[in-house]
């Protein structure tokens, strides 16, 4: 009797993955947008802008106190609009990139794009959050199933649940950028992001990069914690403008020094 296991396999991108990758990354960007908007609203500068708008409306325009209070949500709405537009522009750039993955990442030996693909039964009786998945690479999965007669892959359906990419750094010689690290919300905290990150680092090692770097926002705590757990070191913080010079978010660059180190892929 065959045993049905739940797998997540990390493999290189192949033509036909674009649609699912685009939707997955869109969901990840939108989730980050909501967290960013909430975080910006709690910043002291936004609170000061609300108070200033209230005071200007009351003192200079002679508005009643009740109407002045209505100005406060207007400031919040403007922050939302600016945040939405900035993320919409970012998403448009990402969509253009995803539509050209084969050319951007798969046409040379110094870059690559990977997906994490979940192998599950056609009829799922449990929610993905309740399931323990075996997370591994395509190479190890093929070795595993080659001699294991109890694993019947034909009974499983496939779904892309994660992505990551690595490309040559355009400004820093000998360094690589790790980007597009996303995992579907229902499949987080299962080791998928760690496996994706390790596969990207292993690729950087094989291609003799000196460093592998990744950027995380102050509102992606999970991303920053993932970097720290996987031996990435904080290199630099900088402010990214959202509403001119007045409202910014803190971005952190984490670096993984390679120098001949070999990082084992789970």
Automatic annotation (TrEMBL):
It comes from the Eukaryota. Residues 96-256 form the N-acetyltransferase domain. InterPro entries: Acyl_CoA_acyltransferase (IPR016181), GNAT_dom (IPR000182), NAT_camello-type (IPR050769). The chain crosses the membrane at residues 40-63, 69-89, 242-260. Pfam families: Acetyltransf_1 (PF00583). One of its GO terms (molecular function) is N-acetyltransferase activity. The keyword Protein transport does not apply. Coiled coil: none annotated. Keywords: Membrane, Transferase, Transmembrane, Transmembrane helix. The keyword Transferase applies. SUPFAM superfamilies: Acyl-CoA N-acyltransferases (Nat). This is N-acetyltransferase domain-containing protein. It comes from Ooceraea biroi (Clonal raider ant).
